[in-house]
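Thread: flavin mononucleotide complex, take 2
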Amino acid sequence: MPDPARFVTVDDYEALAREVLPPASSEFVAGGAGDERTLAWNRRAFDRWALRPRFLRGVAAADPSTELFGCPLALPVLIAPWAYQRTAHPDGELATARAAARAGTVFCASTTAEAILEDIAAASTSPKWWQLYVFADRGFTAEMLRRVSSAGYTAVVWTIDLTAYGLRHRETRIGYQPPISLTTEELAYDPSISWDDLAWIREQAPGLPVLLKGILTAEDAELAVGAGADGIVVSNHGGRQLDTSPASLDVLPEVIDTVGGHIPVLLDGGVRRGTDIVKALALGASAVMIGRPAAWGLAAGGEEGVVDVLRILREELENAMTLCGCPTVADITRGHVSPAPVG
Ligand SMILES: Cc1cc2nc3c(=O)[nH]c(=O)nc-3n(C[C@H](O)[C@H](O)[C@H](O)COP(=O)(O)O)c2cc1C
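Output below.
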């Protein structure tokens, strides 16, 4: 069991993860692209908003539960897809899937776990989502989506921001080698993906909602709604793709204004605190996803570590909601944030 005195915040897990992970894995998890400006901006963007607490509202205990695509969630925090989890802990994706189920939330498995797609689906009875990279080999991609459907995944999250691999200098410097080579020549990610492919993906996985992960502009949000996306994840891949692309939180308002409530909008990138979650929801997100915090929990304590990271975020969120006077997530509104003083 994690020691509660040592693990008070999510960042405490980062410290232990750095101690226990082999250097190459540690750099793989931590790193961003280029000069890591976007990686830093993701965090800083949350500091540019202050919370506006409301009092005397009789909130004795906040309830952070919500719902997405008809699926109840104990808290508006999902596990983002992240690759090669067995390099962080021998139980890898299976542990993360079980942890998400115990915390009452959704685990989104990465395409890179394709070899154990069915094992992940069977790791818990809770709903899981599948993150999709479209490969140049469309036959392989179609077969993977057929397996995703028959294994019982409940949504497809199509990642659109990896038409080329980001310039991850930490990986280059330390000689990071992915443990499996899904990206050999035959299985290269298809750089020619376009809006037309949404219909093709739907045909391969009929009936499953398809979310687009990686939207960063109002223009693309408008196209996503027009193309019939079921949801959007505002994301810059945790700062790992195009350096100096904007912080996710900074572009959330323009995406929300464009989408106009037609489809759920999720956000990931830099979420480390319960107050971050309240800010994202106040600015219009339906839920957030966490990448590195889950990786740190898994590296530090396997399934228990991920459960504990989600516990910390849940307790912090409940505390922030209570102190903001919000008994439910639906009570978190734009009026609960204002620009923070500069400096
Ligand atoms: C180690 C690592 C591996 C990742 N692998 C994937 C992946 O396979 N597919 C994907 O869509 N996103 C991937 N991501 C991006 C995450 O889904 C998410 O967008 C990002 O981690 C959110 O930022 P955060 O780490 O600050 O929470 C990865 C992120 C990390 C840290």
